[in-house]
Backbone:
């Protein structure tokens, strides 16, 4: 096997990536200021996940979002994702170390049945089912505007919402409704988002909480 | 529950999304031409997944890539992803209808053991393990440049590669090496990519094959 020359240590690759991201921000946006180390950690990890520096300007944080999300994770809560992809991307080992967990009800038989019976999306039925669970809740949406709209219809007082559905129909409107809801929220303005972005935001919080221990 | 006004039919949402994407391309890039309906399906689905129109210019298709990938899927092959996120995003029901399947070896105990023993990434060890399987293979990488470099080191004649690792260290270089390898490949130029993009490319092929049936 002919060996090629490339960095092979995952931690070294990640560390170097964040240095490069910092340099690019410094060079291209010298006046850009992060509001806090946690704000910086979230934005840089989303850029790490997307290689898209538009994320410097897209993410909206409600004033209490980072505090509320971190406290809920540390006190033990359930995260609910709208896709198995977002669930798959979240560091579940680390989440469990804080006494929290993540669930995705999109393929739950009760959700499939209810969506069919009521003529609603499975994403909406999954929100309804999750809200029946006991305990503190964080909702993590990277895909389905209908899930986010449904959550807002319930006017439930949840611990936090990561609202970054991507798309062209309803996505932007759902995120603006989240921003205006007053819920503790991290939301993407405009069309961009995705399950990868949703997972990256949660992972950034988890890694920052681990470092702070 | 106070009802909000939004489209709730998944098929209608998707159809409307693709119409909007087509309109935006028409308005902003009137001279842009797709090489074929399949080429168009892939690019538009990646834009649908990312809301990022840079994908009009980023994706490289080797001359035989679309034919080889579609034939392999239709004849029954194994897809290997570098992340559970990419695996999670691929339509496995539809894939199975064509007699194909998708696997991710990243957490296989043999991979974890081998990576530790040899001081390589688990992504590399997963490629080594996959190449020992019988049958036609497609590799689908959205995250790990080391996986793509490793595959190229083996000089294996696989049925196709979707090479779209995202990132700042090795990602671009690994994709350029793929482009130059002569393998049937869809590759992203530059830093962008991701597990969501990798899954979207495979799903675009699957939906096009289903429509053609």
Residues:
């Amino acid at each position: 096997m002919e060996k090629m020359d490339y960095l092979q240590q995952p931690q070294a690759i990640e560390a170097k990536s964040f240095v490069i991201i910092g340099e690019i921000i410094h060079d291209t946006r010298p006046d850009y200021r992060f509001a806090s180390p946690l704000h910086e950690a979230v934005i840089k990890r989303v850029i790490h996940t997307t290689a898209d520096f538009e994320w410097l300007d897209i993410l909206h944080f409600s004033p209490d979002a980072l505090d509320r999300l971190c406290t809920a994770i540390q006190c033990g809560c359930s995260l609910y994702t709208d896709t198995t992809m977002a669930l798959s991307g979240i560091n579940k080992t680390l989440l469990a170390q804080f006494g929290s967990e993540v669930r995705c009800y999109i393929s739950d038989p009760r959700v499939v049945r209810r969506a069919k019976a009521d003529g609603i999306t499975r994403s909406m039925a999954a929100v309804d089912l999750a809200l029946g669970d006991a305990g503190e809740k964080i909702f993590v949406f990277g895909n389905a505007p209908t899930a986010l709209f449904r959550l807002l219809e319930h006017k439930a007082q949840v611990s936090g919402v990561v609202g970054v559905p991507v798309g062209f129909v309803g996505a932007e409107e759902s995120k603006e409704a989240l921003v205006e809801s007053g819920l503790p929220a991290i939301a993407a303005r405009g069309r961009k988002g995705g399950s990868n972005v949703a997972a990256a935001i949660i992972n950034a919080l988890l890694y920052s909480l681990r470092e702070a221990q």
Remarks:
- Strands of chain A lie at 59-61, 78-81, 101-103, 137-141, 160-163, 185-188.
- The two ends of chain A are 44 Å apart (CA to CA).
- Residues 70 and 209 of chain A are 7 Å apart (CA to CA).
